[in-house]
Amino acid sequence: MELSADYLREKLQRDLEADHVVVEDTTLNRCATSFRVLVVSAKFEGKPLLQRHRLVNECLAEELPHIHAFEQKTLTPEQWTRELQK
Amino acid sequence: MSASLSRAAAALLRWGRGAVGGGGGGGLPGVGVRAASSGGQAEQLDALVKKDKVVVFLKGTPEQPQCGFSNAVVQILRLHGVRDYAAYNVLDDPELRQGIKDYSNWPTIPQVYLNGEFVGGCDILLQMHQNGDLVEELKKLGIRSALIDEKNQDSK
Questions:
Q1: What is the ipTM of this complex?
Q2: In 10 A of CB B80, how many CB atoms?
Q3: Cβ pair A50:B120 closer than 8 A
Q4: Which B residues in the span 76-105 are in contact with A, Cβ-Cβ below 8 Å?
Q5: Of the CATH numbers 2.60.120.10, 1.20.1530.20, 3.40.50.300, 3.30.300.90, which one belongs to the domain with range A5-85?
């Protein structure tokens, strides 16, 4: 099982049919394997935050036990467009 | 900044919950130790998260958070003037640390519970704080966020 930013990014993109995924390795800030992810997916539409985060957690169910710190931001395509316009 | 933090810390110590840092660690005596089966522990945790309106599981204590994400939760609650909450330090109790993750099916600490319901971790609390949802959720619990008063002051 791999724990690279690229691997996580591909897995998230595939499983969540994401429009856009950014995975940052934040290990240096946290002293142990850590990541920050941004996922933009239509699958989040109509779902409250907790549900969205759980989708991401489920996608990375195998990897998360080996990750020390995990931050996530989950946006729908519409929310992402609005963010870009800011 | 430090003056108001020490006031907040003093306030937390005053209600003498024992669960919050203070004398002898913030871990929960008996939660992990007594539960022989996972069923027993789930029930204990269920009772724990329902005992208070606002319950958080942290690494460290509100006066001394041991993790940036746990600290963020503490600071957000402080900003909203939420002083009366139960805080449990998972670093003092490895069974609690794992148990609460199993209970909520959520892989990380900190964990925030409002009215007995799991709300999320630091990311979610932060977003709720930024988009106004936290003020609303606190209102439902009969807690008036300090930020409402601040906002009103600004607009006068």
A1: 0.83
A2: 20
A3: yes
A4: 105
A5: 3.30.300.90
